[in-house]
Amino acid sequence: MDKVEALREILAQDPGNSFARYGVAMELASRGETESALAEFETLLTANPSYTAGYFMSAQTLAAAGRRSEAMEQLRRGIRCAEREGNSHAASEMQAMLDEFER
Fold first, then answer.
1. pTM for this structure?
2. Rounded CA gap, 92 and 103, in Å?
3. From the centroid of its chain, how far is CA 16?
């Protein structure tokens, strides 16, 4: 059984498991399955809008696919989330990536 299958088994038993959903999205992104990965990130962030890492990794996936404007918008959402959550480290990482895009 591969990682995605194992994580999807977890999700079958606990669809709200954000960590497993994030893991599926990350694994799909690493395989180059961009649209499937982005769909998983969207499901994750809809169910758990406070999952800050989801915004950053979704933005990186979009950027790798050449979808710069969408990546920038996702970074803006992620920065707002990180600030709400008091996660200054994540906010600064996403701001640095956004600054690079805006240059």
1. 0.94
2. 16
3. 16
